[in-house]
Specification:
Layout: E1 2-7, H1 9-12, H2 20-30, E2 37-38, E3 45-47, E4 52-55, E5 71-72, H3 78-81, H4 85-92, E6 96-100, H5 103-109, H6 112-129, E7 134-138, H7 144-148, H8 150-170, E8 177-179, H9 200-218
Parallel strand pairs: 1-2, 1-5, 1-6, 6-7, 7-8
Antiparallel strand pairs: 3-4
Length: 241
Amino acid sequence: MRFMCVGDSMTIGRAGDFTWRYRMWQHLEAAPDGPHELVGPRTTLYDADTNTASSSAYAAADFPPAARRHLAGWGEGWLHMAPLIADAVTAHRPDVLLVSLGLIDLGFYTDSARTAENAAAFLSSAREANPHIRVVLLPVIPNIRAETDAPFAAECAHFNTLLAKAVADLDTPGSPLLLASHPPAYDIHTSTYDGTHPNPTGEHHLAAAFANALHEAWEVGARYAGAADAFAVSSGSGPRG
C-alpha cells in the first residue's frame, strides 16, 4: 500500500528533525500486512538558514531517500495544496493520503469557513485523480498561539467542527474518509520544541494518531508500537533527539 504524507511545517520538518514521517515509515516497515511505501514529489526538509525547502539533513541516518518522499511545505496549507494534489496523486499513485493541514491557513491565510472550502476542494481534486483514494485527516492540534489568542483558538475549534462535518458528508464506500483523533498525550509543553512544531516525543504522537486510525477503522497495519518510545526520547527545547 502506498501512502502520501501531506502537510505544513509540522510534516515537512526542518533540518535536524527526525519528522513524524520517519516514525510512520518505521511503523509501516514493521507492519504485518506490508509491503508499504511512502510516496510523493518532495523529499527535503526546511532549511531555516536559507528559508528554503532544500535540506537533506535528517536526524535519522537509516531513513532511506525513497522513504523520505512527501507533499509538505513550510508555510503551506490547504490553500496551497488544493491546486497541487491532483497532479501529485496522478504522478505518485498513493492509495492513502495522510493529511495534517489547517493551522497555517488559519494563522495566516484564511478563516475557518474558507479553510474548510479549500479542504473540500482538495478532497475533490484528489478524487478526480483517483476515485478510490482513501484519506486520513488530522484535525488542527493544540498550539501555543491558541493558548493566548482567543479568536484564533475559536477559529481552530470551528474549523475542526467543519472538518468533521465534511468527513461525515463526503465519506463514500468507494473513497472512504477518516478523521483521526487528537493525539491524547500531545502537550505543547512536552511534545513540541516551540509550542507548535513536534519534537521527537510529538513526532511519535502524530505518527500514532495516523497509525491507530488506520488500524482501528480499516485494519491497515497495526496499532502503533512506538508510542512508549516517545517518553524515552529527549523532549528538550530543540528539534533534535
